[in-house]
Design goal:
99 residues; globular; 5 strands; alpha/beta; Anti-sigma_ant; Anti-sigma factor antagonist; 5-stranded mixed sheet; Transcription Regulator spoIIAA
């Protein structure tokens, strides 16, 4: 998994490439702890290059959602059909903002 970050004003966009699974989720969680500061009020995850997301990845995304609910907003963009199906089956589509 690789991450690319872009910060504009108080908006942070994180492009994730590859798989978010039990191997890579801790890396994503660690990166997010460092880059999601109190100044970030808009967090955008670009999933256009995410191939797969396991329950470990869902846990990290939901942790980020919990943080952002207190300080701003979080959006997932460019989510592919497979991941959208996971979000729908788990009911997370009703909790997360997905565009």
């Amino acid at each position: 998994m690789q991450l690319s970050k872009k910060i504009e004003d108080n908006r942070l966009t994180v492009l994730i490439e590859g798989r978010i699974d039990t191997t890579t989720a801790p890396q994503l969680e660690g990166e997010l702890r460092q880059i999601v500061t109190d100044e970030v009020i808009d967090l955008i995850f670009d999933f256009s290059k995410v191939e797969y997301m396991s329950s470990a990845g869902i846990r990290v995304i939901m942790s980020a959602e919990k943080i952002m609910r207190r300080q701003g907003a979080m959006t997932l963009i460019h989510v592919n059909e497979d991941i959208m199906e996971i979000l729908e089956m788990t009911g997370l589509i009703d909790i997360l903002t997905v565009q």
